[in-house]
Amino acid sequence: MASFAPVQRLVISIAVLASFVTFLDGTVVNVALPAISREIGGGITTQQWVVDAYLITLSALILLAGSVSDAYGRVLVMRIGLIAFGVASIAVAASFDPLTLIIARAAQGAAGALLVPSSLALITATMRGEVQAKAIGVWTAFTTGAMLVGPLLGGLFVDFLSWRFVFLINVVPIAITLVLLSRLHLPEHERTAKVDWWSGALCALGLGAVVFALIEQPNLGWQSPAIWLPAVVGVALFVMFLLRQRGTSAPLMPLWLFRVRDFGWGNLATLFVYAALSLNGFVVGVYLQQGAGLSATAAGLASLPMTILMILLSSRAGAWAGRWGPRIFMTVGPIVMAAGALLLLTVGAAFDYWWQVLPAMIVMGLGLSLTVAPLTAAILGAIDEKHSGIASAVNNAVSRVAGLLVVAMLSTIVGGALDLGGFHNAAWVTASLLVLGGVVSWIGIRRNPAEVAPAEAAASDLDPR
């Protein structure tokens, strides 16, 4: 970070560390799920809730958190988020039954929602132009690094200490960030944004009720009022949330954004692609331990080639997409990933990582490298700079909701048990979702990033405000 001024280096360090803990927590948990299930019980349902309780509050509140950050101050909101995340992490590690663990995970997600938008807002508020772009590049590189170290660290802690230490990994970076934050002195920004608490509540309760129904449905059946009633109420609340976004002067999720072609179709592609990635990450992390008998560390290392390829190649794919447009990469990338997912069908009772799993991880890594940067460029490049913050937050929320819903439907997807047959079922569903992502991209994505200027003008014209 030699090209940055001292205060800019401090801001970037704070932003990276604050976001790192939320990304790290999202990647370490999959390898810890079998150990959690063995110790506190609950089977696959508890495993689903450990992941989804975090994603429900994170997904539902991340849009609201952006407004809160603007209204009450980015530094204050980040400080509150860091402290709350640390306390929730300790509560997760100390949990003694499934219910307390799930509640603590939900609290973690709510705290994490305060960190991502406020960390990026610190960068966008203190830097402009090329410096800002470089800073966001640094932020992206380091937060992507959480994907690399998360499963490995999680596996090591599970194998040599306890799954509880997986959730205490966050405490050290949180403490460092709080110290750095105390040294940061920025001029107060104008706080004119209104916070639409009702929209945040409708979104959180709606998503929560639908996910509850999807997770518990295999246990109770759709005929049970404890299932169909939350499902109906959840859908109704989410519809009310969408209707409120049309009528309020300061929406959390401006619906006009989706009328911009590349933004709308790009987010639909995001929904399919990130649902597939979440399903694959969950199933591989759990099955390689419970079905194939690998240690948590080995299971954490299993998907490492995929992440390494993404880190090495994604920036190059972004440059290619800038030259030739994102459409071809957003089409080919998910289809290549689908081929990788189908390679997992070679996993059999006589397990061999090198011939059955590694080829799939390499092919999926190549496809992912072709997809991520062009997808981000297409979506954010379709929206003018004035609305780039909310556009990024919406896309982030869509990717989280995709993972939330597919994990909630896991029992239905695998047929009730994550055995070899269930693992193969998940591979088919993963491949199907990825093919849908590629097809949607081919149909919907049109604009080349070189045409951003006219796109910005068109997007601004659509803004009813």
Automatic annotation (TrEMBL):
InterPro entries given in the database record: MFS, MFS_dom, MFS_trans_sf
Name of protein: MFS transporter
Keywords: Membrane, Transmembrane, Transmembrane helix
Sequence ranges assigned to domain Major facilitator superfamily (MFS) profile in this UniProt record: 11-449
Primary location group: membrane
Subcellular localization: Cell membrane
PANTHER family (alphabetical): EXPORT PROTEIN, MAJOR FACILITATOR SUPERFAMILY MULTIDRUG TRANSPORTER MFSC
UniProt-listed CDD domains: MFS_MMR_MDR_like
Gene3D superfamilies: MFS general substrate transporter like domains, Multidrug resistance protein D
One Pfam family from the record: MFS_1
Lineage: Bacteria, Bacillati, Actinomycetota, Actinomycetes, Micrococcales
Annotated transmembrane regions: 12-37, 49-69, 76-96, 102-123, 135-157, 163-183, 195-215, 227-243, 264-288, 294-315, 327-351, 357-380, 401-420, 426-445
Topological category with respect to the lipid bilayer: Multi-pass membrane protein
